[in-house]
Write a structure and sequence with these properties.
By secondary structure, the protein is mostly helical. Helix content is about 85%, strand content about 0%. The chain is built from 7 helices and no strands. The protein is flat, with a radius of gyration of 21 Å.
């Protein structure tokens, strides 16, 4: 039960981290290593202080909440840094991350319901049902609200599974003499 509480406390950090993880790489790739270094120099004492305070107030759960709180509240700053030094317009960044944010938020409900629907079932079964509900709801939201993002997901998955290579490769004429 305690581990589950810790994971729930850390979930927001995972979501925001997944969305913002590439932002620093973009800033670095644009030649602004000093900005990323400055951000890291700020992040370490701020997050460290929050974790110490969290542990002092509420043990490991407090530390987990501090990590999540830092990521959630710092995300707008990450966003501004990306727009300013990453050379990207706010609208472009927003359109790029909106499908993931909306789908992740929408999947939280079905995952919670699925997890709680089988309270006496084996952990593996409960996990399987929750993962299926999450994947299904995430895909459904992307398909209904963000068809372009859903198409990108399908193409990526089909390429990873080896099925999309023929559809993605440009058509070429057969070699002479092979027909």
């Amino acid at each position: 039960v305690y581990k589950r509480q810790l994971l729930r406390c850390l979930a927001p950090a995972g979501v925001v981290g997944a969305l913002g993880g590439g932002m620093g790489a973009i800033v670095l790739a644009r030649g602004h290593a000093s900005v990323e270094l400055g951000f890291a120099a700020l992040r370490i004492p701020v997050m460290g202080g929050m974790i110490v305070l969290g542990v002092w107030l509420a043990d490991a759960r407090g530390a987990a909440l501090a990590v999540s709180g830092y990521h959630v509240f710092a995300f707008p700053l990450f966003y501004l840094v990306l727009c300013r030094w990453g050379g990207m317009r706010a609208g472009v960044v927003t359109r790029a991350i909106a499908p993931g944010i909306v789908a992740a938020l929408a999947m939280a409900g079905p995952v919670s319901v699925a997890r709680d629907a089988l309270p006496d079932a084996a952990v593996g079964l409960r996990l399987s049902v929750a993962v299926a509900a999450g994947a299904g709801s995430y895909a459904g939201v992307l398909g209904l609200l963000f068809p372009r993002a859903w198409r990108e997901v399908r193409l990526t998955l089909s390429g990873l599974l080896g099925r999309g290579a023929a559809r993605l490769a440009p058509a070429t004429a057969p070699a002479e003499g092979s027909a």
